Amino acid sequence: QVQLVESGGGLVQPGGSLRLSCVASGAIFSIYDMGWYRQAPGKQRELVADINNGGSTRYLDSVMGRFTISRVNAKNTVYLQMIDLKPEDTAVYYCYAKVHVSSGTIPEDYWGQGTQVTVSS
User: Fold this and answer.
1) Which string of b and e fits 3-36 if b means at least 16 CB within 10 Å?
2) C-beta separation of 15 from 57 below 8 A
């Protein structure tokens, strides 16, 4: 129905940068919110950043000033630019989208498969 495919994860040194991408495809009428969550082993999944239709953004306090979320609606794509990465940023990062699949239906949440970000020397 709706699929979210993430890319851009990898291994970087502290202070390095990565740019995550997520492309939504399938039966999409419109996308309301898009965002990024992360989850480290043994930890709860937490919201890193999200962006709504109007471009309003929210960020986890610990990433404020280092991460930037953006979206290109024509491409059904959301990005997460990450700079000055720290070891505590290590986690699986999941793309999220609240998708309206057809007129008259209630939007539903969809998740990507996750992409690993590892920050280590």
Assistant:
1) ebebebbeebeeeeebebbbbbeeebeebebbbb
2) no
* Mean pLDDT on 46-74: 97
Tabulate helix, strand, coil % of the chain (nearest 5). Answer: 5, 55, 35
pLDDT at 104 over 90: no
pLDDT at site 1: 86
> Nearest Cα to 115, choosing from 37, 59, 46?
37
Let me know: does 5 contact 111? Beta carbons within 8 Å. Answer: no
CB-based contacts of 105, cutoff 8 Å, min separation 6? 29
